[in-house]
User: What shape does this take?
Amino acid sequence: MNSTATELAERLLKGETRALARAISLVERDDPQMLELLSTLQPHTGHAYLVGITGPPGAGKSTLVDGLVEGLRRRDKTVGVLAVDPNSPFTGGAVLGDRVRMQRHSLDAGVFMRSMGARGHLGGLAGASRHAARVLDAFGRDFVVLETVGVGQSELEVSSVCDTTIVVLNPKQGDEIQAIKAGILEIADIFVVNKAELPGADSAVRQLQQTYPDDMQEGDWLPPIIKAVATRGEGIDAVIDAIEAHRQHVIRSGQLEQKRRRQLREEVLDLVAERARRRAAKALGPASEMGGRLASAPLKEIDPFELALELSGAQPTI
Assistant: This one.
């Protein structure tokens, strides 16, 4: 298929699922047509509500996402799911086996699911996830759910992309809560204690309650703590109700617009940084003068700070 980005966008906006899949593929591989595609789709965004699911490994995030998809469909909401997986640092292959249970939604036209490799992106989200979420938004999804890799405190980036962030824990992690308080717990809009049929669920809830800040003001959002057994569908409706309550809160308070403007600012900075990195990598290629210095000069004579300043054209600060 050799359609232009504009033609692809037109087909996507008409509701063609194959066009949606191809558009996300363009985004994933950072195709040269991606910028034209996203620019064409931008005026058609702003409808979808983005929900991030994060938390330590073993918390049951994928099972919870599966339950949320089913619950949202019962409420007649369309859903897009981006499940970000770790990669092999050598092959780039993503570990996608944990998504098999979600395939029961594959025949539902109201659900679109895509696994994406993190490709070494340290925030737990694939570098392309933000753009893929925008594509799903333009396609008309009511909700876009981003499930992150699950690598602990490096998951903080999810809160800078999503409108509502859910941190999932299980009772076995109750003793770890204070230790990870400075990380993912501070980004939570909603806490879910999954696998709540296990011993220690009430203790985990109490531990989470102790993480509430002491300086909360009237009108601040107090993250609810919801016990769930995602494998049995228990607590799923309560989580969806909490998502809706938080959505209404951030809309009424004006926080949603403010946050989305901050997200756009961060996206601009990320795009500039990424393009600068690519230009620098090209300038350090083996055929370049700098690349030659890196390859052959004595290591003690290579000053990385000097090279960086030379690449950026910046003047050293005094």
Remarks:
- DSSP finds ten helices and seven strands in the chain.
